[in-house]
Design goal:
single chain, 93 residues, alpha+beta, 4-stranded antiparallel beta sheet, 2 helices, 27% helix
Length: 93
Amino acid sequence: MTQIDQTQKFIMRGRFGADSFIPWMDRHARKLGLEKRIITASPERIEMAVKGPPALIDAMEMACSLGPIEIWVEDIECLPLNAMPKSDEPVSH
């Protein structure tokens, strides 16, 4: 049975001052075969849309929560989205 792709918005809070986190998320999304778009990015909060099979979205959430050593993820809130945003250009707060 084939799983239908879903789109979810991750709202991550923590310390994201390192420039390595967004490229790190890009690599992990590609490895999992997920479509990813950054909605907003600041040193304390990142909002990202992710599209793909639910099990792989869950794997991406777990990967982001562990993240690279330079960052600290306090929490991740996942919300359903109807569609992927059109742009991958982060908007700083």
